[in-house]
Amino acid sequence: MRAVVDKDTCIGCGLCVATEPAVFVMDDDGKALSVADTTDENRDAVQSCITGCPVNAIHEE
Ligand code: SF4
Questions:
Q1: Looking at the whole model, is its pTM more than 0.90?
Q2: Which residue, judged by its Cα, is nearest atom 8 of ligand 1?
Q3: Ligand 1 centre from 43 Cα, in Å?
Q4: How far is the CA of 32 from the centre of ligand 1 (A)?
Q5: 33: containing domain
Q6: What's the CATH code of the domain at 41?
Q7: Total structural domains in the chain?
Q8: Which tens digits make up the pLDDT trace of 13-28?
């Protein structure tokens, strides 16, 4: 599984980047970008990002 950010929906609040910086980074447009797969180690943090995103811009594929 891998988290995917809908860049059209993301408002660049930075919550996911602050919560799990090993998975989410800010791109040059000020929108979050997922750069790593979901693993046993980061699963809880990624899930927290998904549920915590204020505009529901993150899902997993
Ligand atoms: S938490 Fe949601 S809105 Fe905020 S930066 Fe991450 S994807 Fe974008």
A1: yes
A2: 10
A3: 17
A4: 6
A5: 3-60
A6: 3.30.70.20
A7: 1
A8: 999 999 999 999 999 9
